[in-house]
Amino acid sequence: MIVALLVAAAAVADPLPSWTDGAGKKSIIDFVDRVTREGSADYLASRERIAVFDNDGTLWIEQPMYVQFAFALDRIKTLAPLHPEWRTTAPFKDVLNGDSKALLSSGTHALLQVIAGSHSGMSTEDFSTIVGSWLATAKHPRFQRPYTSLAYQPMLELLDYLRSQGFKTFIVSGGGVEFMRVFAEQVYDIPPEQAIGSSAATKFVAVGTNGKPALLKEPQIEFVNDGPGKPSGINRFIGRRPVLAFGNSDGDLQMLQWTAGGAGPSFVALIHHTDAEREYAYDRNSTIGKLDKALDEAQRQRWLVVDMKRDWQPIFAEYQGAR
Amino acid sequence: MIVALLVAAAAVADPLPSWTDGAGKKSIIDFVDRVTREGSADYLASRERIAVFDNDGTLWIEQPMYVQFAFALDRIKTLAPLHPEWRTTAPFKDVLNGDSKALLSSGTHALLQVIAGSHSGMSTEDFSTIVGSWLATAKHPRFQRPYTSLAYQPMLELLDYLRSQGFKTFIVSGGGVEFMRVFAEQVYDIPPEQAIGSSAATKFVAVGTNGKPALLKEPQIEFVNDGPGKPSGINRFIGRRPVLAFGNSDGDLQMLQWTAGGAGPSFVALIHHTDAEREYAYDRNSTIGKLDKALDEAQRQRWLVVDMKRDWQPIFAEYQGAR
């Protein structure tokens, strides 16, 4: 009975049970307390409590390739019968031959062709349906479970904790916004209007294929929300400077600098992938999620660097089987 | 005593006291009831209750010129001493000579030059400060009161009413988003992240003039949120189709079509400026706020057309003097 009470008290007292007790976890809770306790010198009104999170590698897995890119490759294969010319044209033939080495060495333009070929030519609503179906069946090659089950449990707790303390949580990702929105509400409890990402142009047609107005997804990239694009994206979509930001790669550096550079209190952190056994270990020389300059800056500025192996107890929630 | 009680009861019962009782007001309240009453066939979960509003001419005055353009002209005059070349170069010389006829006939490119000349070359934060100072002192040429006091009282009531019923209210304007955000929170209780508008590019610099990271406003237009751009903007920023939309001009047509074209219940309305005495009367032939095709479409589709003269009791809140 006393044990049960103690366990209950601990559960109430610890908003971040999957985080290892230590300086990192303590610094997060201290910051939240400092900006939410009335009378505190650093108190922030609720509307100022803007928290931003990179997605790939910060909220969910990004190895061995971005989930969205895995989707794009599968989609190209699905569409191949409609495009016989792809059999002989790079980069599509590399996709169809499973030659990821040729593909990855073929440069940005080729990768954008793969994205355009798999992400355009349908309405926004059809695209959401296609992504939803794919997420329901696709599995991560190593963990053999759905990608949506590979969000980081400690980060899900952090999102919940911040929202319980009046923060508004946003995704600020280099990934495509329409891809993320399909799962962000279900997995992160983040509504579409709080997901910021890269986007392609859309075109309004008053009469779509179903006789109703539609927005058609076009192949042209409209905005790249990465690197210095992240502060611009934050400004464009949120219009207020965040006070808390988490990222994991050099593409997040400017977002972290922008957040840390505000006039008031701020909290900035990097997730450092250090656990090859339970997830992946990579940083300065990685093609995906390269963390080099931002790691140096974090050390200079004394930002929190989360050591995944040491600081996170479970990395993923237990997988309950088919969703 | 009984009178006081009756008045109090009426105040509680009527969420739109500045709207004339009639079919228009009733249709708004009926729609809100229909989508918020549990058990109703048209019930919408709170997260689906997305309401979008054009700004100029829908939420506040847009005659005799867009407020933002009045700001741009004043700003060009303020900056003129730093730009002696403007004295002899169109369109700037027309601005400085007060030759609005020459200015308005000089085409889109010239107007964009005026916007670029007045809206770029400073940080986003400095721009907000400049706009805030201007709004605090500038007066509308006819009404001789601050522009922020010329929001439409019936629309302020509608925004409040919708929010009290679990709607999330957004501005979706052709105007510049950074200009609107300066007053949208104070005047409409709409936070920056719920204001969508046209935007120019911004550039991140790690070390701004005050030694801290800054976003510099650049002259290039990045996105025009007008006409068919409005559904694209809604998709990009909100990622969900609205269920309620108010506009007042042909620039709002596609936003209204997009809202009305959803699978579920929707409510779409136009504000028709019919009151030359208390505000302005204009529609099919107006340069600013032209309402022609959208008026025809509203009649065809039986959308609500608000007759400002008949449907709105006060148009503006009583002006209390200096803010």
Summarize the structure.
2 copies of one chain form a homodimer. With 323 residues, chain A is α/β, with parallel strands linked by helices.
Please describe what this structure looks like.
The structure is a homodimer of 323-residue chains. With 323 residues, the first copy, chain A, is of the alpha/beta class. The first copy, chain A, has a domain at 16-63 and 148-311: HAD superfamily/HAD-like (Rossmann fold), CATH 3.40.50. Chain A contains 13 helices and eight strands. Chain A has helices at residues 2-13, 23-36, 67-79, 92-96, 100-104, 107-119, 124-137, 153-164, 177-188, 229-237, 253-260, 293-301, 308-311; strands spanning 50-53, 168-176, 195-205, 214-223, 244-247, 267-274, 281-282, 304-307. In chain A, strands 1, 2, 3, 4, 5, 6, 7 and 8 form an eight-stranded mixed β-sheet that branches. In chain A, strand 6 (267-274) and strand 7 (281-282) form a beta hairpin. In chain A, helix 3 (67-79) crosses helix 6 and helix 7 (124-137) packs across helix 9. The longest helix of chain A has 14 residues, at 23-36. Chain A starts with a helix and ends in a 12-residue tail after the last helix. The interface between A and B is large, with 38 and 38 residues.
